[in-house]
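so i finally got all the pieces together for this one. its three components total, 937 residues if u count the protein bits. some of the lines might not be protein, just check the labels. i wanna see the whole assembly predicted at once instead of chain by chain like last time, that was a mess tbh
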Amino acid sequence: MRQLRWPYWLGVLLVAATLLLLPFALSAIGTAWVRITNLAILFVFLALGLNIVVGMAGLLDLGYVAFYAVGAYTWALLASPHFDVHWPAWAILPLGAALACVAGVLLGAPTLRLRGDYLAIVTLGFGEIVRIFLNNLSAPFNITNGPKGITRIDGLSLAGIQFNASETFLGIPFTAPIKYYYVLLILLLVILIINLRLADSRIGRAWVAIREDEIAAKACGIDTRNVKLLAFAMGASFGGIAGGMFAAIQGFVSPESFVLNESIMILAMVVLGGMGNVWGVIAGAMLLSFVPELLRYTVEPIQRALFGRMLIEPEVLRMLIFGAALVLTMRFRPAGLWPEKRHKQEMSVAS
Amino acid sequence: MNSVLLEARKLTKRFGGVIALKSVSLTIHRGEIYGLIGPNGAGKTTFFNVITGLYACDEGEVWLAGERLDLSRPHRVAAAGIARTFQNVRLFANMTALENVMVGRHAKGRAGVISAILRTRGERGEEAAMRAKAMELLRYVGIERRAYDLAGHLSYGDQRRLEIARALALEPKLLALDEPAAGMNATETEALRQLIEGLNRDGLTVLLIEHDMRFVMGLCHRIAVLDYGEKIAEGAPAEISRDARVIEAYLGQGAACP
Amino acid sequence: MDILLQQLINGLTTGSVYAIVALGYTMVYGVIQLINFAHGEIVMIGAMVAVSVILALTDTALPPAFILLTGVLAAMPVCMIIGLALERLAYRPLRKAPRLAPLITAIGMSIILQHVALMIWGRDPRAFPQLIENASLAVGGAAISTVQIAIIATSCVMMAGLSWFVYRTRFGIAMRATAENLAIAELMGIDTNRVIAATFAVGAALGAVAGVMVGAYYGVAHYTMGFILGLKAFSAAVLGGIGNLPGAMLGGLVLGLVEALGTGYIGELTDLCHWPFVAEALAERCHADGHVVLLGSNYQDVFAFLVLVLVLIFRPSGLLGERVAERA
């Protein structure tokens, strides 16, 4: 194996140090920014999950937010006063991922033999259906509490640490968002490693092969139906995990959070970053999470200064950016800002 | 003695009202190079698509090495031992040449999602073996120095070689080549002939569709001729070139446009 | 009141709107095999433009029918221009790109159109003024309103007009030739770019009228109304056989009827108090409330989707579509 030189390790060290110190730097600007960063990391989870489905396997899934919802409601129902059950995180998070995975298989099994554009519309409809059920499953038996959503959801608590409470450790104040930040960072690292390993594995290659040419993939002995189903299941379970963490961090979920626009946002992150490229997708998710937030803080004052009133609400501007990201990327850089490069395997064969 | 490798029994395929294959039966023996020729639209590629499971056939069955193939699942046909190439090369353009061949070896591997995530010892061993085998195949077809280039960036001749290497990765019992020499110049065609002969010498049975008559006549041990979906002749190249019906099928067509 | 007849009338009304919108999807799909995802938004913009014009004119002394017509005539060119712009700027450059690229673009355009509409018309629904006097006629044991009659009649006229256009005019022939085989049509001297652009324009014009009909029927127009309407109309197009004009009309009507009947009866069918065993377990609640309805009429939007999935799984070519051979 090739010896890695010191500049590489220095780089790793610098990145690690930056990531560790980031929340303190951010909270110096404003606590809101730590929260924004946490949500951005959740979007990275979602984008990486969707990347397996859309980016690697080439299956356009427009209802991805449904799996996010499954994860979030699993947590919300099993750790809140709503049913007065309070399961521990180590049980709910995997359960949420598993349920999302099942939902993915249930959606995928009948629809995966459809041609690409039909699949897109069916998944889109599926996302809507899940939202309609969340909205209406309050009668005759109150399961989801309807549009009002579920409140006072338990936060994460692991190994005796309550992540919803602030505390001071070694004289340093750790607020709830900062504590969650570190949990998310660790989860991100795990999910990142999983994605990188999958991308460079027998199954990952089969996904890309299906995206590139499904018929040739069949002729190569790939059971395309099962391998696609696997992509759906994997992608969905990432969505489930992100959903669970979302419920824990926000303390509140309602159907409002799981609308089509969210699916489109996640899709825009994958498309803009570079379908199939794990690093590109992360960059895309970060970019499209932070830019609208930055605009939120600048657009309003600028508009008031220039026109004396608000012409474009930040929320509208945000969606316009996502729409434009999809259209312009497809037109001018269809492979995304950071295209997938099937990298050279550095390991020599002879070794 | 069982020298029969592939036996197609009365294959019939209809597209709407058109009968693309009319009860075609043929037998391929182990170790031979078997040619399938015929004018345009005679049903050669349809025959390929049916025996590899890409088209559902309406009637008939296919036996490979004494076992009946499940033609409804193309990947099972591949795993059972028929590897193919396509008339218009179908590679995974955005994957490297090496990865293309590794995909071809998919059916020989077992590693799933969990072992890939955990990078188990078994998975790493399988990956290394797969990579080594793929590299060996690239060397065999003579494009190892392009191993890390994207398949879409290779020259046409190299793409055809890569497609053969990918098919070989399955370690097939039968290698089915759909017009492998199409679009090649004389030098490339000659190199291809040597490659196919080499594979055959190493014991591989080859089924070949070809337009180029000289190429087929010099290479194949036996030839079947399709015309309008029917097998009109079968035999050694010398017999075929004397067969009245074959001459009519070809010359009749040629006479129409002097 | 005769519920069955009433639901049939309601279903026929919504069904004819779905049919008109579905024609927009199916025509575009026919010529360039693209799901013009933004078509639903064009319908929405049609409704919005019409409602703005109509509101501006309501205080004048003009006759209501004239005001309504002006609204429609204002909406049509706006929608046609948007349809043409979509085609020219977003889809045409991607005609040779991989299949998913134009679809992703279409989704992006739909989001953009929706939010531009939000900027112009705001978040609140616009009330659609009642221009046609809303009298009801008794038909058997049910009632049909003048608005419903107007919608069904207008739809019939438009479908007849479109059929004449597609099957009897030179341009219609060019359009069908392009749908059959774009490359060959081009070789025959047909300017396929013009045909494709015209297809978008005609689809958008139909969509504009459909938008006005929806607005008039439900009495409101809102910037989000295009999405679910578009999804339903697309389902109708698939149900009829996408790319097939009579199919879209039939699919729209069938979908409207399925939805109306489903919505009308689902409450009764899923009333747990009528189910054996379950009713006993819920005896107390049944006694107190009379009904324990599992799935009520608020699941209305689910039917279209169910139809879509069932059609795609069991008969992907739709009711009137031809079976297309798989490519290999």
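Confidence is low (pLDDT under 50) at residues 344-351 of chain A.
Chain A touches chain C through 43 residues (CB under 8 Å).
anyway lmk what u think
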